[in-house]
Amino acid sequence: MSKIVIYEENDLMRALLEEWLSKAGYIVRAAASHEHSGGPAVGGPADLIIVSVYMPKRVGAQLVREIQAIHPGTPVIAISGQFFAGLTANGAIAQSLGVQQAIAKPLNRLDLLTAVRSLIGAPA
Q1: pTM (two decimals)
Q2: Beta bridge mates, 104
Q3: What's the Cα-to-Cα distance from 66 to each of 7, 13, 62, rounded to whole Å?
């Protein structure tokens, strides 16, 4: 079964993402973004990481690098309320952060599931 780890600071958003992905059939583990440092990966190995990033860009990029070090080789989707609407999922922002996809908040369930499935497929 496909495993997804979510790093999201906002409790309500974290619960919503976890609910959407769990109901879609994925195994989901979630933690606040600050819980990534100094410890083992949340829930162990994962097939996909979703991380909420904040700006300034340097801080968001540093967070992504730290989480990628914990989950080497695992694809990452970055989400942020500071990304602009109409963002190209794998465009310049994704490239500058070193992630496979970037999604602007507010996001909807369909956009999230489409991005997840494009990277790891439907739940196994």
Answers
A1: 0.85
A2: 80
A3: 12, 21, 6
Domain extent at residue 32: 3-120
Q: At what angle do helices 109-120 and 11-23 cross, to 10 degrees?
A: 60
pLDDT per residue as tens digits for the range 59-76: 778 888 888 888 899 999
Tokens of 103: 């999604």
Helix (H) or strand (E) run with residue 61 in it: helix 57-70
Residue with tokens 């340097």: 58
What span, in angstroms and rounded, lies between the C-alpha atoms of 101 and 91? 8
Output the six-digit token pair for 55. 């700006």
CATH code of the domain covering residue 32: 3.40.50.2300
Q: How many domains does the chain have?
A: 1
